[in-house]
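Residues determine shape. Take a concrete instance:
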Amino acid sequence: MALAIVLTAVGIAVAVAVAHEGKDLGARCGPGLTPKGARCLPTGAGECPSPLVVTAHGCDAPDMRVLIPAASVAVGPSDWEAEGRVAARSVRVQAFRIDAFEVTRGRWASETSPAGPVEDAARAASGMTRAEASAFCASHGGRLPTEDEWIVAAASAMNPPRRYPWGDTGAVCRRAAWGLSTGPCAHGGDGPDTVGAHSDGDSALGIHDLAGNVAEWVASEANGRVAVSGEGPRQSNGIAKGGSWSDALASELRIWAHLDVDPAAGDARVGFRCAYAP
């Protein structure tokens, strides 16, 4: 009898856990998108849920740019997770524009396949070197943003900046594509998600996926970084901002966080968006 009660309790707990996980997975994806494995995909065949649109490559992100006003933002270790990782400094930038979406597989393919459908065109492109990303931006009249520009864009020019592009709290699965490989938002993910699939995490200026999905190449180097306690001096390296689909810790999505990456290496966690003159 006691064994039966224990087994029943375990069964109820498992059922509740599965139901809770299913609820979380459903909430993870925005309207018109359905969770499939670690991804958020359009619900209906041939349909493009907002903010995606129909393009020559299929369902893809629109080519939209957001104006970032000139700003001065104070960046520093305002919370304990930043201590030993961020040096206090003032970030000043002139006005510029930045892509509202990360560069997608569809846009990336436009360099080599000007027309015709692209499989999973609305998925963020990743795995390119920094030079390749820079060349793409240049061919479209832009450039990679600097780290300071990226920070101001993610902070929506607010001073002091918030911890995340959407605010100070709430790093949950519906706001960013993160923890898709080993949790907490999914398991088994092997790459980025559909861009714009987590609109609850948009910045105040309407920029998508600044936290999670792909960490984004910036033009700056990692010289002069504050080393984490116990580490030796950091070597000069490339920087990618915003955290990625594989990060399991919400702290990696913070505006001040960064990923050190070899600029000449392609990394499945890293993609980019471009900046432009105002």
Observations:
- The domain at 52-276 is CATH 3.90.1580.10 (paralog of FGE (formylglycine-generating enzyme)).
- The radius of gyration is 20 Å.
- Confidence is low (pLDDT under 50) at residues 1-26, 226-234.
